[in-house]
Design goal:
Glutaredoxin; 4 strands
Length: about 200
């Protein structure tokens, strides 16, 4: 039934708002009898398609954005420490996600949580191969298999397909949460998402 279809959660491993939303989206969905289907994408691809840039790349927006990341995390009761290297490329972490997703969706979701938390609470630079391999080990993955996956043309192509599919569906930023075809962009859409799940369209 459409009313019980999964909540679609589009995220980037380098997005602070994705990290914050990742800590509440499953609980919100579960309160309304829903599961969450996670989609790792690259903001670089969506930004290019939408002719956008990261808010921290604009001098006028940078300080406000950094302050808002911290304030939004405090509001949700989520620990956050903006990493010294920010933002970073996250294609390898995303390829590992899709490699795992093809085997077991729950393992892919666990990896998403591990990667987001590692980057935004411990400053683990996911774009650094050695750091990513160490995180794979900590997350219970075979690091050699994970490294092979992120270098495998199969998972490179899968990530590109997921990016292209998201863009074709109108996804231009992260997090984007889609409920029965209705898209909500941003961690700050939580009150609207709660109402939509509880009462339906408004």
């Amino acid at each position: 039934m459409s009313a019980r279809s999964p909540v679609e959660f589009y995220f980037d491993f380098s997005s602070p708002y994705s990290y914050i939303a990742s800590e509440w989206v499953e609980a919100v969905a579960a309160r309304h009898g829903r599961t969450v289907r996670w989609h790792a994408i690259l903001l670089g691809a969506t930004f290019q398609a939408a002719e956008l840039k990261s808010p921290v790349s604009y001098p006028l927006k940078r300080e406000y954005s950094i302050a808002d990341f911290a304030r939004s995390a405090r509001f949700e009761g989520v620990p956050l420490q903006l990493p010294p290297s920010f933002p970073i490329p996250t294609q390898n972490a995303a390829r590992v996600f899709w490699w795992l997703h093809a085997q077991d969706e729950a393992r892919a979701t666990a990896w998403a949580h591990a990667g987001l938390r590692a980057y935004f609470t411990r400053g683990v630079v996911l774009s650094d191969a050695a750091a990513l391999l160490a995180l794979c080990t900590q997350a219970g993955l075979d690091p050699a298999a994970a490294e092979a996956a992120w270098n495998d043309p199969t998972w490179k192509a899968r990530l590109k397909t997921e990016n292209d599919t998201a863009i074709a569906a109108g996804i231009f930023g992260a997090p984007t949460i889609v409920i029965d075809g209705e898209a909500f962009w941003g961690n700050d859409r939580k009150p609207q998402i709660e109402r939509w799940l509880a009462q339906g369209p408004f």
